[in-house]
Each structure stands twice: as C-alpha cells, then as structure tokens.
Amino acid sequence: MARESILPLRCEGLSFRVGDLTLLQEVSFTLGQTGVTAVLGPNGAGKTLLLKLCHGLLAPSAGHLQWRYRPADLRMRQAMVFQKPILLRRSVAANIEYVLRVRGMSRAESDARTHEMLRLTGLAEFAARPARALSGGEQQRLALARAWATAPDVLFLDEPGANLDPAAARAVEELICTIAASGTKVVLATHDLAQARRTAQDVLFLHRGRLRAAGAATDFFASPPDETAAAFLRGELYW
Amino acid sequence: MDEFSAAASLAFTLLAKADPTLVDIVLRSLRVSLSALAIAGSIGLLLAALLTVTRFTGRTLLIIGINAAMGLPPVVVGLAVYLLLSRAGPLGDWGLLFSPTAMVIAQVVLLTPLICGLARQTLEDAWREYGELFASLGLNHFRALCTLLVETRYSLLTTLLAGFGRAISEVGAVLIVGGNIAHVTRVMTTTIAMETSRGNLALALALGFILILLALIINAGVFITREIAQRQGG
Questions:
Q1: Contacts of A149 in chain B (CB under 8 A)
Q2: CATH code, domain carrying B210
Q3: Which of the four pLDDT bands, split at 50, 70 and 90, describes residue B232?
Q4: What would the pLDDT profile of B37-65 be if each residue is shown by its tens digit?
Q5: Given a cut of 70, is residue A147 above it in pLDDT?
Q6: Cβ-count burial of B90 within 10 angstroms (0-12 exposed, 13-18 middle, 19+ buried)?
Q7: Is A17 exposed, middle or buried (0-12, 13-18, 19+ CB in 10 A)?
C-alpha cells in the first residue's frame, strides 16, 4: 500500500532573527505534493535559511510550519542535500548503505537499494571508490542518490549545481527531474535562472528575506510580478 | 669515541642475547605505558566525545583547563600523585606508592588531558563538518557520536599513538612515584637515567636504542595510518 505523503506543507509567517538582524520576514507559502519548486533569489536573499527552516534544522523565530500530518518519523520522511555535499569518509556504496541502515533497512535490502541507486545515478562503476575522491559533479550526484535512496516525500536541495561545470550541472539537473518524476517533491534553492526554467514548475522568489513572489514558474518568467523580480530576471539585482 | 663504540657494541650484544634484565625492564615499561594508555584513552576519548556533543555551564572553563593540563610538567604530576599515595596522604592506606600501579596512575594523569584535548579538537572539527548531515538524517546524539568516532578513527589512532609516545618516554613522574626499584618499578627511562649517572653506558645505550626504535615504530604507525586514511577517505 502506498504511503501517505506528509505534504502539502503550509508555512505561515515564518521569520528568523539573529539578535536585531531579521534574516527572514513573515514568509508564507504552501508546498504541493509533487513537482519541483524553485526558491529563487540573489545571494543573501534567505534561500538556504528557508530550506533549513522547512527541513527543521533551524527553528523559526516566529510563524509556524504545518505539515499535512506529523508522523513520528517526520524527519525521516524528508531529506536535504547541501550546497557542498557532506560525504562520509568511506566508499561510494557505503555512503548510501549507511543512511539505509540508519533507517532500519536489512543488509540485503540496503544492498539491493544501493545498487539500484548507483545504477540510476550513473555511479555504479564508482561503487568501491572513496566517496571523497570523486569529482565535484559526481559527489553531488552521490549526495542526491543517498538522499533519494530513502524515498523521501520531500527533498530539499541547496544550490546543487553551484560550482559545477555545465556538463556536470546538466547531469545533476536531469537527476533532479528523474527524482521529481518518481513522486518525490523537490524544493530547489538556486540563483541559476536557466536551471530553474528547465526544472521547476513553481517558483518562490525571495529578496532580502522577504517573499516577493510565489506561483507558477511559467507565469513568473513570462511576466515577473514586480520590478524587483524583473530586475532579478534581467540580471540587474545583485543582493 | 672508543668508549662510545665499546658501549654501543656491548649494547648490541645485550639486545642480541635478549639479556634477561633488559627484557624485564622493557616488558615492564610496555606494561605500565600500555595500561596507562588504555585507561587514559578510555577516559580521554569519552570525555572528548561528551564535550563535543553536549553544552553545559562551565564547559568552556573545562576545555581551557584540559588544554592547559596537556602541558603538565611530569615531575609536578609525580609529586602530586606521590603526596596522594604517601602514607600520610589521603590514599595512603591503599599502599600503592612505589608500585607499578602508582606509575600507571601518574601516567594516566599525564595522558588523559593530552588525549582528551587532541581528540576533542578532532571530534569538534568533524562535528562542524557533519553536524547538519546528522541532524538532517535525524540521528540521536549517541548514533551521531558513534559515526563520528568511526569517521575520525585514523586521527584518533594518531592521538593515541602520541599518548603512548609520551608515556613510554616519560621519566620524571614514574621516578618519583615508582622509586626505580629493581625488578619492581624499574622501567627504561628510569634505568637510562640511573645507569648513565653510574657510568654504565652499555645498558643505558641498549635501552636508548629500544626507545628510539619504539619512537620510529610510533612515527611509522602515524604515517601509515594517515596514508590509509587518505586512501580510504579520499
């Protein structure tokens, strides 16, 4: 029987403050169950912060998150891939096996799932190689494979194409689309407009900690809702 | 130079013949130092792990204290343990002074801060690196810590080897609390000091060679573990 998704996620009035500094101010939106939502904005807009708040790595100073329901293993129903992949000092295969074992999977099941993930992400030939000896693009694919292996309802991705060459970035993008097509909701923080155009169905646009636009990606790119968004699309909004 | 050559030649003869006195001293040194390392390693690593994952009032002060204690002068530690274990001391009834146990206690006091201080730094650096991943995976502190210990195993092994190096080459504390009693508390370093003052250079040199050999083995161990770590960890 198919597992019920914890989505949609409703975020209402999310704020995050450090001392007197407000880094995120009264952000409200809803994340649907499927597809790719791009969180757009220039550097320092609050994209990573928003992802960490949604994932529960940080607690908001104000506002709240409301999941469709809260299972006991809420955190295990989500996954996050960080801008700089955090890989364990072990082999490529062992990195995936580790998270599956942590989730309580048997050795036989985790072996099978690991091989499936390595095949789907094109990393099968590197299975025995030290994870940290991979190239940047391969490390990012491994981090995605490890996160996807747990079949999360929602996957938060923080700038997965940053610092990658065009071919590696393209491979990562294709993988993101494959993951989304498998039924996992993908929330993708990026300042790469081309990447967002190619992958996202929805957009959240942040600027200086405020949500300036939320809606369908096609509408956002065709007719930006305000001058800030238009300036960002023209490449004239620096921070 | 002739005297040195003669002493060196005699030293090699003692080593080649596995002289019983020499073997007795070497084995006792290893027994004392390895026992101290096992105890100090257990306490030091556990304390380092707790300091890495917990936050409590006085933690910073404790860390400063441990770091300061990394450079404790051995003779001062020897004196403190001597006062604790002497007949008039609070632990005098245990009758441990001038025994190998007293030497182990003194070395544990010396090694624990060293191992704890170095291990804490290693674990904290790793915690900064992996902390968000562990939180994202929903690991509890115990599981996260176990993973952290596995991830940093080669660095921690290097720390333990450094601790062993300090223990086996230490002379001040073990001389004070052990008393350098033949066949009871005499170890390599105290024998070298005594035989040199007596002018019996052969035995002192033979033990010196063994100490140098141990230092070489330790450094080789550190080098090899680093190489393995780099190969496996990438």
A1: none
A2: 1.10.3720.10
A3: low
A4: 999 999 999 999 999 988 899 999 999 99
A5: yes
A6: exposed
A7: middle
ipTM rounded to 2 decimals: 0.90
b (16+ CB within 10 A) / e for A176-201: beebbeeebbbbbbbbbeebbebbbe
Query: In chain A, how many domains are there?
Result: 1
Minimal CA separation from A19 to chain B, in Å: 21
Mutate to test the interface with B, among A83, A89, A142, A155 (most CBs of B within 10 A): A89
Place of tokens 């998270």: A99
Domain span including residue A218: 9-233
Q: How many domains does chain B have?
A: 1
**Count of CB atoms within 10 A of residue B187's CB?**
26
CATH at A215 = 3.40.50.300
Cβ proximity of B233 and B155 under 8 Å:
no
pLDDT at B233: 62
Residue pLDDT, tens place only, A153-170? 999 999 988 878 888 888
- Nearest CB to B136 within list A79, A89, A129: A79
The span from the CA of A27 to the CA of A79, in Å, is 22
Identify whether A4 is part of a domain.
Answer: no
Identify whether the C-beta of residue B11 lies closer than 8 Å to the C-beta of residue B203. yes
Tell me if chain B has a CB within 8 Å of the CB of A73. yes
